[in-house]
Design brief:
The chain has 235 residues and is an alpha/beta fold. A seven-stranded mixed β-sheet has the order 3-2-1-4-5-11-10, with helices on both faces. It starts with a helix and ends with a strand. The protein binds S-adenosylmethionine (SAM). The site of S-adenosylmethionine has 22 residues, from helix 1 and helix 3.
């Protein structure tokens, strides 16, 4: 299935800019970096790396990172932005890396885009060394269940966050700022059970709050947060 990323790549690069979008700058970057700093990781794989921003952040922490993504234009941009980096056009479901070749795998808001969750988790497990970490930032499942309803305007002026069909796994089309893509809605247990079945143990779980900003968007975020962060260890 065409998930829209080829046609949306240019708009995505614009939205991410040099510093990342609001959610990355004000919610996810700090807790994601906190999970990798000072832990002695040396070789990482960024699954669904996009235009390579988190790979560059890992490199700045002294962690060599391979970035993979099936969207050619995003990988071309990653190479331009980091000519010494290792960026490969390939999907999470079928990696070119050898078994047990990295000690950190990252999926920074990309598991929602991956159609084949089971093979992707098996591949992440295969390329990690035993004891290696799989660091995941993902959309909350109640959030993907809110597409296309999301925030409503009630007759009394209040706003509600509407979700539906939570237990039904399905592709959901979503669009913002020139990006039009297909994400996957999967209930939370689908990810958690999938990771357990693939041979990972959960070592960290967080629902980070916005930092460095206190505007209407931050208030809405606190009412219905978009993201979660978790770290799993290869058994
Ligand atoms: C929301 S973007 C996140 C990009 C990057 N991780 C970041 O945080 O800026 C999702 C990424 O998943 C990628 N993607 C889509 N299908 C994929 C697949 N089967 N395997 C790996 N990545 C995929 C898209 O090309 C896109 O770059």
């Amino acid at each position: 299935m065409d998930n829209g990323w080829d046609a949306s790549a240019r708009a995505w690069i614009e939205v991410i800019g040099d510093d990342g979008d609001w959610g990355r700058r004000h919610v996810l970057d700090a807790p994601m970096l906190a999970r990798v700093r000072g832990r002695g990781f040396r070789e990482a794989l960024d699954i669904g790396c996009g235009e390579g921003r988190f790979c560059r952040m890992l490199a700045a922490e002294g962690i060599a990172c391979i970035g993979i993504d099936p969207t050619e234009e995003l990988i071309a941009t990653a190479r331009l932005r980091d000519p010494d980096g290792d960026y490969r056009v390939e999907p999470a479901e079928s990696l070119s890396l050898k078994d047990a070749s990295v000690d950190l795998a990252v999926a920074y808001l990309s598991l929602i885009d991956v159609g084949g969750l089971k093979p992707a988790l098996a591949e992440a497990h295969r390329v990690l060394r035993p004891g290696g970490s799989f660091l995941i930032a993902n959309l909350q499942s109640f959030n993907t269940a809110a597409i296309p309803l999301g925030w409503t305007h009630e007759p009394d002026g209040s706003r509600r966050f509407c979700i539906d069909h939570y237990l039904c796994v399905r592709p959901v089309e979503t669009a913002w700022r020139g990006i039009r893509i297909v994400n996957w809605h999967r209930p939370m247990h689908h990810y958690m059970q999938g990771l357990l079945d693939a041979g990972f143990d959960l070592v960290h779980f967080d629902e980070p709050a916005p930092y460095g900003v206190d505007d209407d968007k931050a208030e809405r975020y606190r009412r219905a947060p978009n993201f979660l962060v978790m770290e799993w260890r290869k058994r």
